[in-house]
Recover the amino acids of this structure.
């Protein structure tokens, strides 16, 4: 069984994980998922600007499993965390 957290639940989870790592995020934002040149109204991408300890590849795999999104990865040397294809309840 695969869980799918929505965008609000995923934000709370990331904030909790960052707090456990003695880190935080300075900002977060959301944008629309585009698939086959059309907007997907059921999913969003989340991005967090991270301050403090970075996420490892293992952390990203674990978050992907818990959130149920399409992909989780870091960019810019681990300064940004991206969750791609998170369920949107809007």
């Amino acid at each position: 069984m695969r869980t799918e957290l929505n965008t609000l639940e995923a934000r709370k989870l990331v904030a909790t994980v960052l707090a456990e790592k003695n880190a935080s995020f300075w900002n977060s934002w959301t944008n629309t998922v585009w698939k086959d040149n059309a907007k997907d109204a059921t999913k969003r991408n989340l991005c967090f600007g991270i301050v403090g300890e970075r996420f490892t590849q293992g952390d990203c795999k674990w978050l992907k499993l818990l959130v149920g999104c399409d992909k989780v990865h870091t960019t810019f040397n681990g300064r940004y965390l991206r969750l791609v294809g998170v369920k949107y309840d809007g």
Summary: The radius of gyration is 13 Å. The chain has a mean pLDDT of 92. The chain is about 30% helix and 45% strand. The longest helix spans residues 7-20.
